[in-house]
């Protein structure tokens, strides 16, 4: 049960950060300026960007194997 809760919390964080990354990329300003304006450290931003992109790549590859 606790493992399921951890997975759920991580999925929620991925969803929140995916939105933040999309917002930053569509803002037209640099990452550093966006982070300063949104109270996020650039290191956290880049950490989550990497996690989201890796997850997306892994999910995409898994889907291709199923086809």
Structure description:
The chain is an all-alpha fold and 67 residues long. It has one domain. It has helices at 2-27, 31-38, 42-66. Helix 1 (2-27) packs across helix 3. The chain is elongated, with a radius of gyration of 14 Å. The mean pLDDT is 85.
Largest sheet: none
What percent of the residues sit in helical stretches (DSSP H or I)? over 70%
Overall radius of gyration: 14 Å
Please report the total strand number as a whole number: 0
Helix/strand/pairing category: mainly alpha
Strand content: under 5%
Contiguous runs where pLDDT drops below 50 for at least 5 residues:
none
Mean pLDDT: 85
**Secondary-structure element sequence?**
HHH
- How many helices? 3
Total of domains:
1
CA-based shape: elongated
Cα distance spanning the termini: 32 Å
Reconstruct the topology from this structure.
Layout (H helix, E strand, L loop, with lengths): L1 H26 L3 H8 L3 H25 L1
Helix pairs in contact: 1-3
Characteristic key phrases:
mainly alpha, single chain
Q: Briefly, what is this?
A:
With 67 residues, the chain is mainly α.
């Amino acid at each position: 049960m606790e493992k399921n809760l951890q997975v759920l919390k991580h999925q929620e964080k991925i969803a929140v950060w995916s939105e933040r990354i999309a917002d930053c990329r569509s803002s037209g300003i640099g990452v550093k300026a966006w982070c300063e304006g949104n109270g996020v450290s650039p290191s956290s931003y880049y950490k989550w960007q990497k996690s989201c992109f890796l997850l997306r790549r892994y999910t995409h590859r898994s889907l291709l194997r199923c086809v």
